[in-house]
């Protein structure tokens, strides 16, 4: 299993969105779930979590519509602890 697949399967949807939304578009993140954890897409969990994070101020949009850290953003634990760093070169 590659590191990306491990993250998508083992980490919460919220944490994945908080981490990847700053670097990747929503369609790119959606594609990761289609490939590695389709159940999240089937249940509409990805979209509802994404909207909730925007509503809660954990994610925000800049004046160009790009996703940025919101005032309530907190770094996901797997990122803070570098859980997957030994797997990613």
TrEMBL record:
Q: Which domain of life is it from?
A: Bacteria
Q: What is this protein called?
A: Immunity protein
Task: Name its species.
Answer: Xenorhabdus mauleonii
């Amino acid at each position: 299993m590659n590191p990306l697949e491990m993250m998508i399967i083992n980490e919460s949807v919220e944490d994945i969105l908080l981490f990847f939304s700053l670097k990747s578009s929503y369609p790119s993140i959606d594609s990761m779930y289609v490939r590695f954890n389709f159940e999240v897409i089937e249940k509409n969990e990805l979209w509802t979590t994404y909207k909730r994070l925007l509503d809660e101020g954990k994610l925000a949009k800049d004046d160009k519509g790009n996703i940025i850290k919101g005032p309530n953003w907190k770094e996901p634990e797997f990122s803070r602890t570098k859980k997957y760093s030994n797997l990613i070169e």
